[in-house]
Request: fold
Amino acid sequence: MWNDVFTLAYREVLILTKIKIRILGLIFNALIWLVAMGFGLSPLLSISGVSYFAFLVPGMIGINLLFPSFFGASTLITDRQFGFLKEMLVAPIPRTTLVLGKALGLSFYATVSAAMVLAFSIILGFQINHWWTIPALIGIALLASLGLTCFGLALAIKIKDTQSFQLLGNFIVFPFFLLSGAFFPLDQAPWFIRYFSYINPITYAIDAMRQITLGIGHTPLILDLGVLFGFFIITLIVAAKLFDKSE
Amino acid sequence: MASKNCIIETKGLVKKFDNFEAVKDVSLCINEGEIFGLLGPNGAGKTTFLSVLATTLQANGGSAMVNGFDVSKSPDGVRKSIGMSFQDNSLDIDLTAKENLWFHCRMYHIPENQINEKISQALKLADLEQFADREIKKYSGGMKRRLEIVRALMHEPKILFLDEPTLGLDPQTRRALWEKIKQLNQEKGMTIILTTHYMEEANELCDRIAIIDKGRIVALGTSQELKKSVKGDVITLETRNNQAFAGKKFKFVKNTKLHNGEISLTVDSAEKRITEIVLFAKKSKIQIDNINLKKPSLEDVFLHFTGKTIREAELSAEGQFAERFKASKPELRAR
Reply:
């Protein structure tokens, strides 16, 4: 099974690396957010004793995870449109493995983009106190991304054209993006923002990353990781079930 | 339970799309080790039938067993037993030929040390060696077709489904592919089920042929048996008064069919009867423009069972589409 997951994931990465403009886009995106928001607002704000720039870094990592993870799932729709999905569907591979393989490949790509944000942040002055926080951040990013890609894949199975997926995706991704604690601390936010944020898995990823780098956060680290893992398992099962039924 | 020799057995198989029945009550037994052809015009339901057997579509009724596995209850068992080449593209257009073949080998668990060998064999067979590292989106239609078929052969499945394998191929490639299909069948004992609307292909390749029309199997047998079922030779005539000929009851004529400005008369030993027909024409002062005698072909078999030639069946399907299109709402058409 892990061999098949690897093959499927490898294909995803292979395709994504062929489209070089996407990688450039990711790097540019990460930089512009960090520089404009971080440096623009840093002189005005400091949160829980850390500079706004430092506060923003885990948030930016989370956001740069969200977009490629979720929208990467639309490749399932193009696989269907161009016919390659048929090749996968008649292969002797369980549907769960197909979903997991695709999710892993897309997550790998999303995690690389998150790692790039981290690298830029460090270059721009973000302080890392222990070396082990880097692999820990990457591990959290990968776990969060797996859940988000499976969530995207579940939708991509139901929605059969790319335009609708993009449109619906924007409706879903923007609240996830803005109401995740990436830009402001949640404990001072109004209750409706707080409640929404607590059903948003990105919130937990950002919270976990803030705790291990800055030592500030809202929920216990173990709860953050538990929520991310649970989200991944549930979305994986749902996506595999939907896949089995619809194809 | 499947009968002993049936590697594929369907009973009353039905597949519907909304209200349209694409496959109607098909019961069929395909023997292990045979090359089985599904012959019929476009839109007859051949691809739908194959897709149900290959587990990519779910049946609405009846049952189908493939290599001892029920397609609806144990699709994974079915998938392990089969290979399939599709009528339309199923290659990853962003990957190169080599990468596509590699992916296939991995999906079908071909041992790592055989993969390179398999890939070069497949590329050679498809005559695509010099394009191995080119992305599929830069391939022509024929190149894709060739690659698609050699890919389906790579893992040497027990049962191979080929949906219109030679559609759009040039005659040499088609011949080469037929040879390869026969070879796989003989050397490896692979059961091969193919769909085609080429009479020649069915005749050349298939041990048994099912003629399928509008979702139903209308005739089944070896090429010889099917031709015999026409019962006799066919004399085709074009005359200035076809109606008079069609109305005339010759004692020796078994079947008269009028279509497309031609009359087909089914007779025994046509060589002897042809003079009688000419004499009748002379006596009735009907000019014969063209007279033709032939031993029955699969085309005649198709005509015999469906009342149409395969080409006419395809044209009438297009005609129906055009009518439906006209009847559809104008705002739908504008889009």
Observations:
- The interface with chain A takes residues 54-56, 76, 79-80, 82, 84, 86, 88-95, 99, 103-104, 106-109, 135 of chain B (CB under 8 Å).
